[in-house]
Amino acid sequence: MYRKLKTLVEKGLVKQVPAVGLGAFRIGFSLVILQEIVFLFYFRHLIFDPVPFFDRASPILHFFLLVWAAIAVCLVLGYHTRRAAVANYLFWVVFVVFTPMWQDFDGGFDQLMTGSSFLLIFLPTERALSLDNLRSKLRYSTPASRYEPNDKVSVLAYYLPLAISLGLLYLDSGIHKLSAEFWRNGMGAWLPPTMPYYMSAIDMTPLLNLKLVEMFIGYTIIVFQLVFLFLFWFRPFRVPLLFIGAIFHTGIILSLNIYPFGFAMLVHYFLMVPFKWWRKLTQALRLEQPRLTVFYDRQCPLCNRTVIIIQHFDIFRAIEFRDLQTYAKEYRQLESIPESELLKDLYALDGEGRLYSGLDTYIQIMVCMGYTAPFGWFMKLPGVYHWGNRIYRRIADRRERVVCDETCAVTSDPGSWGEHPFGEWYRRYAATPAQQTQRIAKFLILILMLQLNSTVHYGLLYRCGDDCDMGEFGRVLDEVSNSIINFSHAFLGITPHALYMHDHFAGYNHILAITYRDETGREHWLPFVNEEGRIVAPNWGRVQSMWANVAVTSHMHRERLSKFLKKVTAFWGTKLGLDLSHAEFVIKLKEVSVPMDWEEDLRRKNIAQPWRDIGKIVWERRNFRVELPHIDVEAL
């Protein structure tokens, strides 16, 4: 098996493909990271403070979130990509393992983000749609020769994230689903959107009321998850799997309030888009004719750098560049300008033959490029234009021109590892294809063993319960296996994916909400759970998981419920400006139905169920207590 795996890895390393899909994946994945950091910063007091705004967490956490956000921006732009990827991975591990995100606020996708962030360190995602490409062009280009960075990658750069982040996750999740009654009944996609705590604001009732359609969706998801890992390698299956997976995760985004998980999974499908689709998209974006022709001095280093920068960002190819030394005599608009003056500025001609120079050329470039037009219009404003023109003249008049000879040639090859943060280490230990093949094969064996341990432990042995009792030796193995899972969970994101299973929904026949009364006695719903029982924005993702999966469950515990009632009322009470030195909140309960088989119009029925008051939360002199006089929480 190991030899066969090495052979496959070797073939994958040899086959080179365009990097554009990998670059698109990096941008999409990094935007998911960035939005999650913004979410964490908004809810930083709820998540990290023991008691929001009262017993505060260390303020250094807030600083780290800002640093992490800057790193995510670098990943989006592809700026120092590998260094940013290393830092991003470390932040995921530290925040998930050493803060309440580990258990209380598990957003359901932290493990996916950790695992994919680890892979991102080693993937050459900077080879497309990145500022690192621009940096390489500027560093190694000269007036005599234009350097073009390598835009090809090994096909393994596409296959490995798909196999590890998607394929193994799907397979593990599919095996778990086989043990869930409502999934076996075909209702796996139907039940969660009928439960108020999980449904989105979009009313999916017309679709939910089609039993056969819901059964088809449910069974398709199970089959899709079980076969994805084994089929996506083959070209005939790739596009069908792409469409099914994209529809699957788009459905999660639209029907449930766990949109971060849906987007995190969806962006991985950029890696499955056929390369010819990217080529056709590129051709469709490019204009048939340039909107502006720009003339520059090819002997001027600054002018050449300017051309490289503009061409890098000109995605529509709206600007055509021509050097003055070759083409100036072909245009009558330039003939009357003395050569000494001609070489001082950038000149441009638009489609109507109008001539621009200096700052006006840059303004027209920004306007013609399309998406940068607002910057061009801003530069035209009175005051801004004159200030910008003064700066431009100062730079243009002081620049130096050189006559390029053989000394302009690139004197050093950037090499494959030139921009890698561990370049010297790579040159020494992983410079040959044989070494790379061996290390990748060993890594894949390790991942497979860790995933097998997790799947067998929780997907099979845990599910069969007492029937799998292996005695004292078995209990020792169980502890060892569990310890390994904790390691793989924390550092590689390999963990059981038993999401939305029967053992979570069974008996989940009640939900809670919180209201408060203003000074006039009028009752208001806390902006958390609304009158319908839905958890409202922005309390989605990991905050929804905290409330619906930890605080309120089918078997609640008074101490755990009290902890999160305290957190929620302290956070939203302070946000609303309530005086928590003397405040009361009302705890409401609604009964809902979570059947294991289809029931018509269940979403509307659950929403329409009445609320009843079951207790109150009292804040007095910043002391907190919960009063549930007639309710046994553990019995709910």
From TrEMBL:
Keywords, ordered alphabetically: Membrane, Transmembrane, Transmembrane helix
Pfam families linked to this entry: DCC1-like, HTTM
Topology with respect to the bilayer: Multi-pass membrane protein
Subcellular location: Endomembrane system
Principal localisation: membrane
TM regions (residue ranges): 20-40, 60-79, 86-103, 115-134, 155-171, 216-234, 241-271
Identification of the protein by name: DCC family thiol-disulfide oxidoreductase YuxK
UniProt organism field: Methylocaldum szegediense
